[in-house]
Every structure is written in C-alpha cells, then in structure tokens.
Amino acid sequence: MKRGTLKNIIFVAAALIIAVVSIILPGIILDYLNKKEVADLRDVPAEYYAGASEAVIVNSSRQLSDYENLQLVTGIWESEITTVDPSSCRLTEVEAKDLAAQRMSSMYTKGLYPSDLAADVNQWYVWDAAAYRAIDTTFKTYAANFWRISFYKYDHTEKHTVIMTETGSVLYAHAEMTEEGKLDDFTPVSARAGYFLLIDTKSLDYLANVVNNQSQFTLTEGGKRILGDEMTEADLQDFDREQVSHYTPVSEDFVPDDGILIYDNEHNVNFKVYMQKDSKNYTVIIQP
C-alpha cells in the first residue's frame, strides 16, 4: 500500500471518529448532567414562592365579617401589622374621617365620650388619617384594614385620636385637652362600653352606602350576642400592654381606673374595655 493512500485512510478515519464523537458526546454529557440535577433535590428559598397578589388579598378580605376583622386587628387571629396605601382600602381618608366622627358622636350620646365630633365637625380645622393593615401570618391572604384618625380643634385646645376598623368598630379613642379641668364634669358610662364594638344604625347605613354592600355586618345596633359585666380591681390590674400594642401604642403610665368585660356567647370570645381619665386626658382601649 502506498504511503499516500495510508495517510488518506488515517485522515478519513480520524475525521469519522471526530464527527461521531462530536455528535454523541454532547448527548452523553447532557444526559449525565440532567440525571445529576434531577437527583439533587434542594429546598427552594422562601423568596421564590409567589405570595398572594394584592387583588387576591382585597377580594378575600371583602368576604370577612366585622367580627373576623376584629379578630385580625386585635390579634385573636394571628396577624402582623403594616402600613397600607389608602387606595387599597374600601374607605377613603375622608370617608374614614366621617365614619369616625359619626361613631364618636354615637359614643357621646351614650355617655362614653366627652365630645360630639360629628356635631362640631366644622370646627375641626385640621385632621389627618393613616391606614394600616392586619394580615394573617399563615397564608398572607386575609387582611383587615383599619384607620388612625386624629382631629385637632382650631384653637389647639383639643386633640382627639380614634383607631377604628373599616367596619366601624372603635378599638381606641383618646381625648387630650390642654386646658386643666375640662374633663372634670365627664364621667363615662362604662356599662355601655359594648357600643364601641356595636355599629349604630346611622353608621351602618353610611357604610352600606359607601362600600356598596361589599362587607358583611353582623354587629348591629342592639345586638344581643355581646353582653357586659363590670370589672373587678383584679381585672383592672391584669391590663396587658403588650396585647393591645398589637394595633396601637400604649404609654407606660397607662393604669386603667375603670372597665367592663364584653363577652360574645356565639363565638366564645372575651373583650376588655379599659378606661382612664384625669383632668386633661381620657383614654379607651379595647383588649381581646
């Protein structure tokens, strides 16, 4: 065999080997890597899980009753508190302010608050409202929005702060008077404290009109499933600052001087309504 012919055979054989290897080897490597990746199971980082969208949260939350809203905000239903854009709420800032004024006017007529905010609304030259959200910690799908609304009298002698769910339950109210003794003639009728969690007819009609019946209201005026008993001295001493701070800050010097137990026979849940008053300040706090 001639040397030139042998060279040609070697070159052709080498070319065929290279061609075959080029075709087969990538498949072998890919198959090996694929088997390795499939067999190697790892935990997916939490940030890769998709959470509930805002649309899902809003839609799910609209199905909650006012009682379930109370559970989320007060922490009976485990939740975490965050700020929220008012555009995600069913009430606007103005609507929340108007509802708060109505509710506190109702409390005034029942002897539970020293000022009629609705009657004097034109005298509150300045007010502000901030929206918050209590969202369940398990699925982060169910949320209850609530508002902190402050009213400032035109002469700066009074400031009123209300924390209220979007279904009208008042969880915190504080009247601050700069003039000494303005509260001396006011004695809250604690036996009616259950009305902080009851929605009066006027406010109920207002809510139904504003949110177009997108809520379930169960705590209506005169509801019989919420009853109250006066607290003992021991009950007053059991005030749990950490529990109520879930939705509102409480000063270190808050020592309740009056209160009432509110119990719900239907859901077997208790609430405590604490009250404190001196010559310049009056505070009401709801604790689950």
The residue ranges in which pLDDT falls below 50 over 5 or more consecutive positions are none
User: Beta fraction of the residues?
Assistant: 15-25%
Q: How much helicity do the residues have?
A: 25-40%
Structural class: alpha+beta
Brief descriptors of the model:
single chain; alpha+beta; nine-stranded antiparallel beta sheet; 7 helices; 24% strand; elongated
Explained architecture:
By secondary structure, the protein is of the alpha+beta class. It is 31% helix and 24% strand. The protein has 7 helices and 9 strands, in the order H-H-H-E-H-E-E-E-E-H-E-H-H-E-E-E. The protein has a 9-stranded antiparallel beta sheet. Helix 4 runs antiparallel to helix 5.
Give a brief rundown of this model.
The protein is α+β, with helices and mostly antiparallel strands and 288 residues long.
Write the layout of secondary structure elements.
Elements lengths: L2 H37 L14 H8 L4 H9 L4 E5 L9 H17 L16 E11 L6 E10 L5 E8 L4 E8 L23 H10 L15 E5 L2 H5 L3 H4 L13 E7 L4 E9 L3 E7 L1
Antiparallel strand pairs: 1-2, 2-3, 3-4, 4-5, 5-9, 6-7, 7-8, 8-9
Helix pairs in contact: 4-5
